[in-house]
Amino acid sequence: MQVITGKVQKAKKVVIYGPEGVGKSSLAAQFPRPIFIDTEGSTTEMDVARLPKPSSWEMLKQQVKWVWQGGQYGTLIIDTIDWAEMLCVESVCSTHQKNGIEDFGYGKGYIFVSEELGRMLNLLSDVVDAGIHVVLIAHAQIVKFEQPDEMGAYDRYQLKLGQKTASRTAPLVKEWADMVLFINYKTFSIATDKEGKKNKAQGGVRTVYATHHPAWDAKNRHGLPDEFPLDYGHIAHIFNTPAPTTNPSQQQQASVTPPQQSAQTVNQTGNIPNNIPAPVNTAPPTPSLNSNIPPALRELMTLHQVTESEIQQAVFQRNYYPVDTPIANYDPGFVEGVLVAAWSSVLGMIQNNRKAVPFN
């Protein structure tokens, strides 16, 4: 057995949460060589590198894999993880043909969601193992909290994940992270009467809280002070890690082709090196797709350069629809629950078809 002593330098898993507009995304944008997966479309006014807003859970996973396999970035930022959780819930409901998460009964839907989110966290851990920091941004919610051994209850801030009591996603994300930072306005009050019984708020400083408190969740393993001003300089030393290492999967042909839209965005920001290798195409150029194809499926088709005829052929092989049925005429539940939710299997069938019938 090999015994390892001392500190191990590796990329970090970070959660940043707080009220809307407090500066969470701006702080994350200062991490080394960042790229955003903007699940809610809130970074449009920021000069950052970003991938297109994912319209499905499968699209989000494909984007994470693309960043992981590319090795060109220092930090992957998902903004926000609570909006990503909504995509996860939609995917679980589509897969099991349910209208909503409560339709499962007995809390089973929340178990499925936590399992699926757990698989995403495992994928993000692979990104970290490849030397790329991962930052999950989340909104905060105020909940009533009551300790078992105490009298009374009080309000506290928590991650805005799994707002139902049966959900397990918030604890999963907190346990996964090396660092949980809570950002909020620290407001000062002054007395307005001589007796000091009446007060009013005056001023406020954006403050980062890095340790646990009865009124909020936070943690770190780097000896940070309990609180400090919202300034990246206070944590910059933690992320001065070596450049990302080559992922073993890069030795094989990448299964995810970077979308053209993200490449244009990257070039405009100037944050990413210009020597990104061109992807190896395994399919003929993709013609313009029918705008009536559901967006979640159309984005996956564009990402992997899949044509409408290839989808139609794969669907016909499984005896779902006649080969000449337009995708726009497919049942929406079939598109979401089969084609999008099981995209990896669909893509695998298409790739096998490509090998069987070479194109010129």
Automatic annotation (TrEMBL):
<feature type="compositionally biased region" description="Low complexity">
    <location>
        <begin position="248"/>
        <end position="264"/>
    </location>
</feature>
<feature type="region of interest" description="Disordered">
    <location>
        <begin position="239"/>
        <end position="292"/>
    </location>
</feature>
<dbReference type="InterPro" id="IPR027417">
    <property type="entry name" value="P-loop_NTPase"/>
</dbReference>
<protein>
    <submittedName>
        <fullName>Phage protein</fullName>
    </submittedName>
</protein>
<feature type="compositionally biased region" description="Polar residues">
    <location>
        <begin position="265"/>
        <end position="274"/>
    </location>
</feature>
<dbReference type="Pfam" id="PF13479">
    <property type="entry name" value="AAA_24"/>
</dbReference>
